[in-house]
Amino acid sequence: MTMGLEAWYIDSSDEDHRMPHKLSPNQPVSLEELQKLGVFHWKLNADIYETDPELEQIRKDQGYSYMDIITIRKDTLPNYEEKLKMFFEEHLHLDDEIRYILDGHAYFDVRDKEDRWIRIATTKGDLITLPAGIYHRFTLDTNNYTKAMRLFVGGPVWKAYNRPADDFDIRKKYLATASSSACFFWGLRDDSSSYMVVRLNRTLSCR
Ligand SMILES: CSCCC(=O)/C(O)=C/O
Ligand SMILES: [Fe+2]
C-alpha cells in the first residue's frame, strides 16, 4: 500500500508550534523533494502492526532489528512536558530516525538544503525515516497524542545532538550524500519470486 504524505514549508511564527503553520498560500513539498533530502515513507496498515507481513519485510530488508513503542500523551509519558520540549529542540542523530505512527498524529520538521523548515504531517499508518545527520525536530499537533513504534538498525541510540552540530562527521556525510541516500537491488522471497528492495540506511553497504 503506497500513499502520499502531506508536507509543507512553514512560517516563522513563534505561536503554538502544534498548529500547522502553513504559509499563505500554502507551499507544499512533494515526496520526491523529501526523498532528495533523504526522507523516506511507507504507508502501512497499523491495525495489524503486530502481524503485518509488509512491516516484517521492511524490517528484514532495512535491518530494523530493534523496536519499541512510545505513547506520547500527558497521562502516560513520564516527564511529558520536558520530553516534548526536548523533542522540539532542533537536533540531529548519529543514526536514522525511524518512526511508525500506530495511532494519533505527529509533525516531523526537517531542514531543507537552504535551511528552511519543512513540516511533515504523519498519522496512523505512516512509517517515516529521517537520515542520520539531518537537522530536525518533533511535535504533537493539537490532539496532543501519538503512539509510535521506534525502530533501529541494531541497538537503540537515543542521543540527540542539538544544533549547532555542523562539525560532526555524520553532518558532513549527510550534506555530502543526502541526495543519493538509497540504493536499489533485487530481493528473493521464500517462494523464489523476486522483488525490488530500496535500502535506505546509508550506514549499510549497497552490496
Ligand atoms: C515519535 S518518537 C519521539 C520523537 C523522537 O524520538 C525524536 O528524536 C524526534 O526527533
Ligand atoms: Fe530526533
From TrEMBL:
Pathway(s): Amino-acid biosynthesis; L-methionine biosynthesis via salvage pathway; L-methionine from S-methyl-5-thio-alpha-D-ribose 1-phosphate: step 5/6
Co-factor binding comment: Binds either 1 Fe or Ni cation per monomer. Iron-binding promotes an acireductone dioxygenase reaction producing 2-keto-4-methylthiobutyrate, while nickel-binding promotes an acireductone dioxygenase reaction producing 3-(methylsulfanyl)propanoate.
Name where it's found. Answer: Cytoplasm; Nucleus; Cell membrane
Q: Residues that bind Fe(2+), according to the entry? A: 91, 93, 97, 136
A Gene Ontology biological process in which this protein takes part is:
L-methionine salvage from methylthioadenosine
Coiled coil residues, start to end: none
Xref: InterPro entries: ARD (IPR004313), ARD_euk (IPR027496), RmlC-like_jellyroll (IPR014710), RmlC_Cupin_sf (IPR011051)
Chief location of this protein?
A: cytoplasm
A molecular function (GO) held by this record is: acireductone dioxygenase (Ni2+-requiring) activity
Essential cofactor(s): Fe(2+); Ni(2+)
Q: Does the keyword Translocase apply?
A: no
Q: Which family does it belong to?
A: Belongs to the acireductone dioxygenase (ARD) family.
Task performed by this protein? Catalyzes 2 different reactions between oxygen and the acireductone 1,2-dihydroxy-3-keto-5-methylthiopentene (DHK-MTPene) depending upon the metal bound in the active site. Fe-containing acireductone dioxygenase (Fe-ARD) produces formate and 2-keto-4-methylthiobutyrate (KMTB), the alpha-ketoacid precursor of methionine in the methionine recycle pathway. Ni-containing acireductone dioxygenase (Ni-ARD) produces methylthiopropionate, carbon monoxide and formate, and does not lie on the methionine recycle pathway.
The identity of this protein, by name, is Acireductone dioxygenase
Q: What is the lineage of its organism?
A: Eukaryota, Metazoa, Chordata, Craniata, Vertebrata
